[in-house]
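[[Local backbone shapes]]
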Amino acid sequence: MKLLFYDLETTGTMYWRNGIHQLSGMVVINGEVKETFDFKVQPNPKAEITAEALAVAGVTVEQIKAYPAMWGVYKQFTDMLSKYVDKFDKQDKFYLCGYNITQFDNQFLRAWFVQNSDNYFGSWFWSNSIDVMVLATQYLLPIRPAMENFKLCTVAKELGVVIEEEKLHDAQYDNYLTYEIYKVVTNPTE
């Protein structure tokens, strides 16, 4: 099974208006981490940049505008994907995996492909993805009412994952936490 765990940091919350400035993750094939990645990316030049989103990620407009252009990062990203998936084989694709990705990250990633003149997102990824938040919901169902919230950090702490608070909201670190949660909720006997 080919899994692409990933997380994004963006310039706002609206995929049609804002852009990606960090794309991080790992390629996991049959349970083995094959590769990790952490791309800083200059947002689409047409993207609106909100101060609130940058503050969450701890970056400035000057920093993200100095990142490599999205077209070059897109090429690096798809070159990496092509090492593991034949986009011309309809039965060879990644499952996208992440925390709360269905309503947020997947839409941004798909829009980013279109912004890079690639309308074949589905050549790389299955249409159904694995949302680790949903998996954790089932796993934590009995204690969910007692939990303060269901944010990534809260869930990770509840499952015994050690948290480094200063690293939160960095896509690479958030992806690490997501993968740790995934391992706990999919392998409860280990």
